[in-house]
Amino acid sequence: MEKKNNEMNRRKFLKLLGTGATVVSTAFYGCQSQRKDISGSAQSEIPTDKMTCRVNPTTGDKVSILGYGCMRLPTIPVEGKEGEDEIDQEMVNRQVDFALAHGLNYFDTSPAYCKGRSERAMGIALSRHPRSSYFIATKLSNFSPATWTREASLAMYRNSLKELQVDYIDYMLLHGVGMGNGMDEFNARYMDNGVLDFLMEERRAGRIRNLGFSYHGDVRVFDTLLSRHDEYKWDFVQIQLNYLDWRHAKEINRNNTDAEYLYGELAARGIPAVIMEPLLGGRLSKVHDHVVARLKQREPNRSVASWAFRFAGTFPGVLTVLSGMTYMEHLEDNLRTYSPLQPLTDEEMEYLYDTADLMMQYPTVPCNDCKYCMPCPYGIDIPSILVHYNKCVNQGHVPESAQEENYRKARRAFLVGYDRAVPRLRQADHCIGCRQCVSHCPQGIDIPSELHRIDGFVEKLKQGTL
User: Fold this and answer.
1) What whole-number distance in Å separates Cα of residue 67 and Cα of residue 319?
2) Omega into 47 within 30° of 0, i.e. cis?
């Protein structure tokens, strides 16, 4: 991972930690819940009729600024089958009910999410409610060359309708354009086989109400699709946007594009933006202890995550901000943040830009825990390895040498935590560098290089040779 070459001096560091705060409110559209509060006393403190909404200029949809990302649904172990899990449908139903009751009405899924189980789970949960009470977004996730034929892609699309138990899709996306081999891969997935023409015809027929794409990777694909907006008439575009990626995405990984550019291009054309990774797969809720102290000093009663959600929601061209809310407490916290949204002031925005500069000093791996790299053919648990490493960076448990004051504590925390987080047979030392994972990573991480680097660090800790 490339590091930023501007180490802050101690004076600026202390200045950043001590900046003050101001808060303002703004007007909002209120989504009226069609259901009464179904929660207990603690949950009932969240308003049921204060959710901020944005209006889609194409369809007039009144969309909740908080969207439910369905990539990380809750799971439970399969009894008698070690290491296997299944969707916790009862919990999914409860969370969907609670979300709808509190004004959240946008749900984003994909045939690829949750090992292919997300659409079915969401179909079961949402079909228990009136179809007019929610908007469903799904994707044509034809990543594998085996699904690039017209027949296979159309079968995937039709299966989404079946799994979701609907006869139309509110928001349909071409999934992950720009990934892999850039424009050549996009053409193979959507153009040469006539699939994009088919989807546009489905939109004209009303079976797709809004057509857009989610972008990762090669910015030339993004620019090309926007240059043909008059032809395709994109109803929305899904981009990665957060206060770290706003200006640092390309510094973190040269294959990424700064969100400031992506959002600006959409805003200039009046195309609504749907935001993914507002928390960078949770990384912006699990930041370095110094950053936690900085944000908590400013707003003691707000969660660290709420800063990132307020940042994403502040931009007026944003239609909705997706969050993968595995646990009920995540859902509750996000509902509080957006019921209603209190947009950041200009001064608070600068405060977060300074916070992002500060975060660039800590060499975390830009893994968003999306699990697109899985399964590894050699059984390596890639996301868990990278998540553990990032956690230790943020907690100060990645020492640079044995001479550091907290070396023994950090060494123990890293090694013990590593064995707890990742079974021995699934650790980084088993990577042979086959590179199968690399083309699947939306963040463009050179995963084998990172695994070999982490394995080398682990060996030095074990041998005491750091």
Assistant:
1) 9
2) no
How far apart, in Å, do the first and last CA atoms of the chain sit?
20
Angstrom distance (rounded) from CA 312 to CA 66: 10
Cα–Cα separations (whole angstroms), residue 427 to 61, 158, 282, 423: 47, 39, 22, 7
* Mean pLDDT over the full length of the chain: 87
pLDDT tens column, 141-190: 999 999 999 999 999 999 999 999 999 999 999 999 998 889 999 999 99
* pTM of the complete model: 0.79
The 8-class DSSP code of residue 79 comes to T
**What 3-state DSSP class applies to 219?**
helix
| Residue tagged 């013990």 (tokens) | 416
Task: Count CB-CB contacts under 10 A for residue 68.
Answer: 27
Question: Minimal CA–CA distance to 139: which of 118, 121, 165, 124?
Answer: 118
CB 453 within 8 A of CB 407: no
Distance CA 286, CA 278 (A): 13
Q: Please tell me the predicted confidence (pLDDT) of residue 7.
A: 35
Q: Cα–Cα distance between 109 and 238 in angstroms, integer?
A: 13
- 456 membership: H or E segment, kind and range: helix 447-463
In Å, how far are 8, 61, 69, 175 from 66, measured between CA atoms?
A: 35, 14, 9, 20
466 to each of 69, 132, 414, how far by Cα in Å? 41, 60, 13
The predicted model gives 336-340 an average pLDDT of 96
* Residue 141: per-residue pLDDT: 96
Predicted confidence (pLDDT) at residue 296 exceeds the cutoff of 50: yes
CA dist., res. 219 & res. 225, Å (int): 10
Peptide bond into 375 cis (omega under 30): yes
Is residue 139 within 8 A of residue 214, CB to CB? The reply is: yes
In angstroms, the CA 224 to CA 226 distance is 5
- Asked if 52 contacts 67 with a C-beta cutoff of 8 angstroms, the reply is no
